[in-house]
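Input sequence (272 aa), recorded before submission:
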Amino acid sequence: MLRKILFAYMLFYSAQLFSVRDVLFNQQTSIIKPGRVVDFSITMLTNLLSTELYKDFSMIFLLLLSLFALTGLFGMMPRISSLVVFFMAVNLQNRIYATTTGGDILAYLLLFYLSFVSNGKKLKNPNFNQIQNASNKVFIFLCYFQVIVVYAVSGIYKLMSPEWLNGEALYYILSVNEYSLPFIQQNINSLTGVLKVCTWLALLYQVLFPILVFNKRIKNYFLLGGIIFHVGIGLVMGLLNFSLVMLCCYALFAEFKTKGRKLPLAKLSESH
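Predicted structure, token format:
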């Protein structure tokens, strides 16, 4: 399920890039100048659009990203689709490096891990099946671990910031034009109390996430709080893509009842 949700997000992301392709990728009109990569290396493989040979191929990369995100969304070649979408997206993003966010990096890492996770079908050869099961467990664990690290590191850094501890962080953030709404800026001084509470709640949520997200009794309610948290970030601060990626990640943790049992979405995706 996580893989399909990420494919859907990548289709949305490719539509965004396509709508501003001339501004971002055109060699003459781009607002972001490409780097210069010459020597063959891993760096070159993830920066092909900054090489002389492939510098004009951005639309091909974008079309391939869209095509394989669509095939993956419909369950066709899920592992290959994950790897191709990862490869295309990384190259496109490295060409427009100035637009990169933490959400982008997290999405690409998850896509890479998911390229090693099967669609749940058993293989005829029992030895190969055991290898596949081991690969599934390792890389699904890495997906969990990656999301946990994002929250843990963010929470730790916030605990080291006086502005987050005294409740003033959101006040300063929302005072910046690029991360706020006109209504909030016009009334920000009358919202100081509310912003303090929201600052502490955001800090508390990120610090407790690595622990409470595994508590089966309150997990879904806790994730509901996270949905409100990230929707707020997307709408108020304008960090839409980051918020969408984080919400996609909740597919790893949420549980739904199926035939009298509760299964995490990660397991539901393997049961097909």
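Checked by second reader. Strands lie at 255-258, 261-264.
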